[in-house]
Amino acid sequence: xxxxxxxxxxxxxxxxxxxxxxxxxxxxxxxxxxxxxxxxxxxxxxxxxxxxxxxxxxxxxxxxxxxxxxxxxxxxxxxxxxxxxxxxxxxxxxxxxxxxxxxxxxxxxxxxxxxxxxxxxxxxxxxxxxxxxxxxxxxxxxxxxxxxxxxxxxxxxxxxxxxxxxxxxxxxxxx
Length: 175
Known about the structure:
This protein is an alpha/beta fold. The chain contains six helices and five strands. The longest helix is centred in the last third of the chain and has 17 residues, at 158-174.
């Protein structure tokens, strides 16, 4: 069993695009937050229309921490490397977006061949087994009266999404 859980959420320029806003929140196995980091950089290229309508308004409150994609990836890779020991990654539906983040971290040379999470926890799978649609952590939060801190933008703000994923995971685990 891991000592910690790192809940990760990335917002990308389209489902298959480059990450431009990423949050990582580290918890102990009791669900107590230990550390967090949020990163944002300018979007390279034309902004995907769905992202422009649904994500950009949600991340308005996140300051751009990096002036380039490469420097953001460097900072994310450094944070991950410093915090990954003894931790299991948790993501909501990471099979496309968050797994791409780790492929990109490797491609740009900030993590090595053995540094990505091997067995991440896919929250959508746990939700499905509990009778929820795989993409319904907010429904789970509402139906189970989970306390979520107020975070500017709500859904599609990566910090909000990472915290919601963790709250739902720890609640499911306690049942």
